[in-house]
Design goal:
Blueprint lengths: L1 H26 L3 E6 L4 E4 L1 H7 L26 H15 L1 E9 L5 E13 L2 E10 L1 H29 L9 H18 L3 E8 L2 H8 L1 H18 L6 E6 L2 E6 L4 H18 L14 E8 L8 H17 L5 E5 L2
Parallel strand pairs: 9-10
Antiparallel strand pairs: 1-2, 1-5, 3-4, 4-5, 6-8, 6-9, 7-8
Helix pairs in contact: 6-7, 7-8
Length: about 325
């Protein structure tokens, strides 16, 4: 009698426990399905009905996961083939998560995150699928990515603008100061000579006074482009120093290369033949260039002396008739 009562009590406890599990399963906020390892549906909760738009279990009887999905998944696989692969992986591993395109009863397609877990249900091996609609999450992620990229692009643009002369597109004085410091430090360690060229448009005030500042800006743009085109090495830099002055930093370099660069620029500017009837130097726009070469790795060398000597050479070129260059190598 006691054994019978114990069995009845245990049966009652199991029924109560099953009812509790059933209640928790049906009232869970997340959509859940239990289906056989062949894909056949065995049980579903209310959240799944709501998510998919179904109203009764009979609508899902004898269904396969591919039947509630578009024909193809985003990776190009058919829903049937991919569902079979995903279920096999879950059986092998015990659990498997993946993204899946579902299709509601009204035809609406949505992206979901599915986790398949191998469980025992009614005495047989089955798969429990937990489904989360992640459509809005992915939209938000894409929006965050787009905004992040937009912010990155704007920051890069701002960074470029902060280092670029607005008129000519060359590096500005602020960036030039950084370049001079970096080139000097690197060349000191590498023990390589470097060159500096100061370029100044001859009689530019007379040009602006007679042709107008708009035409003067055009000249600055043209010469900036010409200089940039002439300086082709990636290790060389061109900047607008201010007003009608430009600077070229050559690193590494030798005396012959600095001389060649100055000659090529002077020739190219003269060949442009931009009219300048008010210049006592020539009937077209010309340049004067001052060049200095130094070796940062040698004792008693300083960047300040290097810059000063290039400026002195520019002054000498101006005093010697303009439309020419002067060059010095600091011993």
């Amino acid at each position: 009698m006691n054994d019978l009562q114990a069995l009845l009590d245990e049966n009652h406890r199991l029924k109560r426990q099953l009812a509790d599990y059933r209640y928790l399963f049906d009232t869970a906020d997340v959509a859940m399905i239990i289906h056989g390892t062949d894909g056949s549906y065995l049980d579903y909760n209310q959240a799944y009905y709501k998510l998919m738009g179904y109203t009764k279990k009979s609508q899902l009887e004898n269904f396969h996961p591919a039947d509630v999905s578009p024909q193809f998944q985003p990776d190009g696989q058919t829903s049937f083939d991919k569902a079979t692969k995903m279920m096999n992986l879950a059986v092998q591993k015990g659990e498997h998560s993946f993204e899946w395109m579902h299709q509601k009863t009204d035809g609406q397609i949505f992206l979901s995150q599915v986790t398949l877990t191998l469980i025992t249900f009614n005495g047989q091996k089955t798969l429990r699928a937990v489904i989360h609609d992640i459509t809005e999450t992915r939209k938000l992620e894409r929006l965050v990515e787009e905004k992040t990229q937009e912010l990155t692009d704007k920051n890069e643009k701002l960074e470029k603008l902060s280092h670029t002369d607005a008129l000519t597109g060359l590096y500005n004085r602020r960036k030039l100061d950084e370049i001079l410091t970096d080139v000097w430090d690197f060349s000191s360690r590498a023990y390589t000579p470097i060159g500096l060229l100061f370029l100044d448009i001859d009689n530019f005030k007379a040009f602006n006074d007679n042709y107008g500042h708009s035409e003067g800006d055009t000249v600055l743009e043209k010469l900036a482009q010409l200089i940039q085109d002439t300086v082709k090495r990636k290790t060389d830099y061109v900047a607008r120093y201010g007003g009608e002055e430009f600077v070229i930093v050559l690193a590494p370099t030798e005396y012959e290369y600095v001389q060649k660069m100055a000659e090529e620029i002077l020739q190219a500017v003269n060949e442009l033949k931009i009219p300048h009837k008010h210049s006592p130097t020539a009937d077209h726009v010309t340049l004067s260039i001052g060049c200095a070469i130094t070796h940062p790795g040698k004792p008693n060398r300083s960047a300040e002396e290097w810059i000063e000597r290039a400026d002195e050479m520019l002054y000498k070129a101006k005093k010697s008739g303009k439309n020419r260059f002067e060059i010095t190598e600091i011993d």
